[in-house]
């Protein structure tokens, strides 16, 4: 799967939220200063070429929808982050964030509890 640019990710976030949308609906959710309509339309067409967005014709317009599921993209992005910055080690990444975010002992215990539960549920 291709990595998405920051602008493409931002558009995908809106499409995941809306599920199906016209360009103007995606644009309405964009933060200020809003990009131009043509910019959003171009990015959506690029996402279509990448195979992560599809469309259906409704009258004279297009209704866009995500093909790529958010969970799948999240999983791939996290794997790339761990590989690229933490030598493939989840524990190095967790340690880094624990230090950077100044997690309390209680927060670390909660994190461990969640991890144990997730492993147990597998």
Automatic annotation (TrEMBL):
Entry-linked Gene3D superfamilies: Penicillinase repressor domain, Winged helix-like DNA-binding domain superfamily/Winged helix DNA-binding domain
A Pfam family annotated for this UniProt entry: Penicillinase_R
UniProt cross-references to InterPro entries, sorted A to Z: BlaI_family, WH-like_DNA-bd_sf, WH_DNA-bd_sf
UniProt keyword Transcription regulation present: yes
Keyword Transcription regulation tagged: yes
Keywords per UniProt: DNA-binding, Transcription, Transcription regulation
Family the UniProt entry places it in: Belongs to the BlaI transcriptional regulatory family.
Record protein name field: Transcriptional regulator
Organism per entry: Marivirga lumbricoides
């Amino acid at each position: 799967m291709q990595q998405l640019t920051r602008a493409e990710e931002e558009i995908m976030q809106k499409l995941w939220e809306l599920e199906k949308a016209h360009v103007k609906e995606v644009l309405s959710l964009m933060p200020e200063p809003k990009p131009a309509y043509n910019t959003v339309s171009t990015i959506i067409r690029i996402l279509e070429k990448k195979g992560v967005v599809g469309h259906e014709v409704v009258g004279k317009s297009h209704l866009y929808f995500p093909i790529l599921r958010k969970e799948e993209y999240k999983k791939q992005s996290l794997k790339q982050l761990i590989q690229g910055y933490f030598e493939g080690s989840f524990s190095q990444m967790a340690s880094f964030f624990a230090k950077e975010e100044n997690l309390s002992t209680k927060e670390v215990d909660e994190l461990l509890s969640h991890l144990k539960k997730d492993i147990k549920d597998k």
